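Our consortium's second objective concerns turning raw sequence data into structural hypotheses that experimental partners can test. To show how far this objective has progressed, the report includes one record in full. It was chosen at random from the queue rather than selected for favorable results. The single chain below, 491 residues long, was entered without modification.
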Amino acid sequence: MGEKGCLGVIIGNRDFFPDRLVAEARVEIIELFKRLNIRAIMLDTNDTKLGGVESFQDAQKCAALFRQHRDEILGVLVVLPNFGDERGIAETLKLAELNVPVLVQGYPDDLDKLDVARRRDSWCGKISACNNLYQFGIKYSLTSKHVVHPTDPVFINDLLNFVGVCRVTRGLRKVRIGAIGARPGGFNTVRYSEKILQRNGISVVTVDLSEILGNANKLTKYDISVQQRIQKIKDYAPVGRTPDESLIQMAKLDVALTDFVQLHALDATAIQCWTSVQQNYGCNVCTSMSIMSENMLPSGCEVDVTGTLSMYALQLASGSPSALVDWNNNYANDDNKCVLFHCGNWAKSFLPDIEISTAPILGTSVGEENTFGALSGRTPASPLTFGRISTDDPKGIMKAYIGEGRLTDDTLKTFGNRAVAEIPNLQGLMQYICRNGFEHHVVMNASKTAGILKEAFENYMGWEVQYFKDPAEQPLRNESANTKNELAAQY
């Protein structure tokens, strides 16, 4: 298992509380991080008393250490084995100028150890530490329990989710999205504001579709890059009845897209997937988009830039691919189920029965022979996190909705990429989407990470967020990690 991330660690101390508590906490945190594959940047016991932060001088040393590792540190964990020095903690973060998420943890007291020699008072100290962070204007996250031991499965889950929050926050603040081609004329729904995105650290790199198609047309089936890409496509999915001529066109287009992504160091792409590419080039770009999304370079339809941004955010939260889908159909008379659909570019992870095919609906207007490259496949039952980020231009803000449900194995006889979703209070969700001007596209991810996204979007990005929480579920649960029982068994 690879490293999950790197966190700075501040262990608070206060002079009239037992110092041994700091030494014990340091050992426990180091051991926990080792078990969870999280790398710690923290003061050595030779740098300050027991490696804790208590004075302004300690804060200066810890801040200097954090600045040395600025590019590595995703977030900061504040550990309070006793009351702690709230000013030292806040000053460390102020001097370090990391601008990363902060999680505040306090140790619980034992009822039989409340004498002067053994009491912690972290319950009270955590309130003081948070008060100072609030005064300093430093954003921070809280554990599910006010005080909790690091070996408690609840804290372990909180910590893993916090690392997810850190990944989402860092990723969104520096993401680069390619907008390839013009928005299809009939899709006002995917309009967005580049300026609002840029204010939030999100860069959009635009290119005319003719430039990509022109570069693709300069290639021939004899080019090594094209031959390699044809084989890559065949290895990725069964080609079905796709003719060789269409495979060559798909491969040439994929080479041109890959070159553009690499040239501009893009993290994701939103592509003018119809109808120009079919009419002027003769194939669908869906297979290339699916391959990119499967390889964690999400690619969205219809130049839906904020939809693609949503794909990237859900990917960061879960560590698995996302798919941009249509809220497409009711499912019979079940008010909490609906059909999710797209003509065929979902990542392979969603399509165990994947096959390269055509786009029948689009084919009625451009000729089905020009739509080879669309994928066919049904998504099976799995956990579901859904979400959507948008720019609200009249308000000048970023906004989002997120929630959880599940994908089901209910019968569904249709074509393209398809799934059935069951979502609590689906009718209320649809009312919210329609009343607040959200797009018909949403993103799905096979995880339970809505709590991570809410914390990142709302607390650290400062966006307006509506969280559609399943009343039967607990917040901030990450099912892509080990279960709480499995984690507890490690101790």
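The partners drew two points from this record. The chain is about 40% helix and 20% strand. The longest strand covers residues 397-408. Both points have been shared with the crystallography group to help prioritize constructs.
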